[in-house]
Amino acid sequence: MANTSSWHITRPAHQTLLLVTIFLLTTLDFLQVGMIAFAAAPIMGETGSSPEEYSFITAAYACVAIVMISMQCWLVERMGWRRYIWGSLAIFSLGAWICAQSNTYYPFLFGRVVMAVGGASFMTGARVLVNLLPPSPLRFTGIKVFASGLALGTALSPFLAALAVSEDTWSALFLMLIAVALVVFVTASFCLPWQTPPELTKSQSHPFLLMWLAGGAFAMLWALQRSNYNFFSDLLILSIIALTGLCALIYFFNSMVRFHGEPLLMVRTLFSNRRYIVGLLLFSLCYLVLGANNYIIPQILQQALGFSWSTVGNWHALGLSSALVAWLMMGFIMTKRPASKKFFVSGFLALAAYGWIMSRLTPTANIMSDILPALLCNGIFIMLVMATTAMHTFREVQQNETVFSHAQQVKNMAAQLCMALGISAATIGMQWRATVHYAVLNTEITANNPRYADTLVQVSTLYARQVATPVADNMAFAWVAQMVKQQATLLAGQDYFLLVALVGALGAIIMAVQQLMK
User: Fold this and answer.
1) What's the pLDDT band for 348 if we cut at 50, 70, 90?
2) Which of 152, 173, 203 is the last residue in one of the domains?
């Protein structure tokens, strides 16, 4: 994608439509990621998928997404922006329709893969489309619109997922995505350019290297997903598979560095830029935490504290709405005091507060007074740290349209991998800590413990009002066992949230020290 300055959109009406397209593309991407992640359990039930099978779907989607993101610039150079967005939306909508009609595992798997082919690059494409606006304050408006779409999609996804599933219409998740995609198709039709760059400036596809990328990504993602279930029994083989995948990815990027001509990704230029590398590492940390939080929060609120699925979705959405408020405040402050360190410090302090508040939860926690403040802090962290990182990571590469596009692609490829890593690490960590706490709590379940005996008698007496005494005794024991399991899950969650609080505190300290040393 050579110099695209001749593609700049100058007509005010077309610029407005472009801003709407950018907003809707970003919203669509975060809606589909958030809704399908939050509604994983109901979707598994409706399609008859086991957790292992659903993990394979997740790995397959992320693998296809990584490959398609890597090829975005190559495809745009040959199709032009309008045809590329049209094609992406059409394929994405087809995949969503297949998913909506699925009632078994394999059709749903196929639908998700098709969705990945079309929708993997929505976020990357939306950000690069901002550069079709002429260099002016309007381009900063485009960045604000992009971030607003991110915040809105993140906040709406759990609410819409809870609404659709609670009404026994889980397929409505995908119909909503198709509806948004149709609107984007219309707006893109009136504002995006048709042009493609000269043939000599186009990047090359490297089919053989793409096979290494696809194979390496899938091996790593599959090993990460399988580790959720076989970490302790098959650690060696999973480690070998993950290491093999990592070596394949290293080979792919090393080949990009050594390639002469127009590579698929300008890795050599990107990896020689210190600001970009630091930003990429910070992005990776954010997506790691985001993936872990997406897994932990519903599990703690549902399994450990007993809140209903719809309640969790509604309150989680309300908590994430703070991301939009934080962005609006950030945009107002930035015009007067643009220095970034205060946003980094505030964002990591919000993460520390989120972790600390959640680590103090008890079985009697109130969702409004005890949990909502933490969820609000989580939304603030997402926006302040990730938006600020985005503004500074690409500062030195945005003058070259191709390098900027490749920088966005590599960042979002890392995001797919780190989100999966965060989910897997959280799953393994929760299994480990819950097992440790369960073993300790289980030592108290003995006939010699008067508190256990008294509790068993009281609960059995209550059940005996409705059923025979032997059945009541069994039901009382099952109730106690369930309480022990919930308590072990809550304690494991507290361990995780203490770790998150530590990460947030360290991040705030590092950023503050850097500011003082200037």
Assistant:
1) very high
2) 203
Task: Kindly report, residue by residue over 116-135, the tens digit of the pLDDT.
Answer: 999 988 999 999 999 888 88
CA 76/CA 342 separation, integer angstroms: 37
Query: Reduced to 3 states, what is the DSSP secondary structure of residue 349?
Result: helix
How far is CA 63 from its chain centroid? 15
Same domain membership, residue 160 and residue 285: no
Measured between alpha carbons, how far is residue 346 from residues 163, 293, 351, 504, 509 in Å? Answer: 33, 19, 9, 10, 11
CA–CA dist 294, 475 (Å, integer) = 33
Task: Quote the number of domains for the chain.
Answer: 2
Q: Which domain holds residue 104?
A: 1-203
Specify the higher pLDDT residue, 477 or 133: 133
**Nearest alpha-carbon partner for 416 in 221, 275, 125:** 221
Locate 233 and state its tokens: 């029994």
What residue type is 239 in one-letter code?
A: S
Q: Burial letters for 106-138: b for 16+ Cβ neighbours within 10 Å, e otherwise?
A: eebbbbbbbbbbbbbbbbbbbbbbbbbbeeeee
How far is it, in rounded angstroms, from Cα 25 to Cα 19? 10
pTM exceeds 0.85 for this model: yes
Q: Which of 359, 479, 485, 484 is nearest to 431 (CA)?
A: 485
Terminal alpha carbon distance of the chain: 38
Are 297 and 152 members of one domain?
no
| pLDDT reading at 1 higher than 60 | no
What residue has token string 């007074």? 369
**Cα distance between residue 327 and residue 344, in whole Å:** 13
CA-based R_g, the chain, Å = 24
Q: Which residue has the higher pLDDT, 517 or 38?
A: 38
Count of other CB atoms within 10 angstroms of residue 457? 12
User: Is 219 part of a structural domain of the chain?
Assistant: no
For residue 185, is it left (φ>0), alpha (ψ between -120 and 50) or beta?
alpha
Residues 65 and 155 occupy one common structural domain: yes
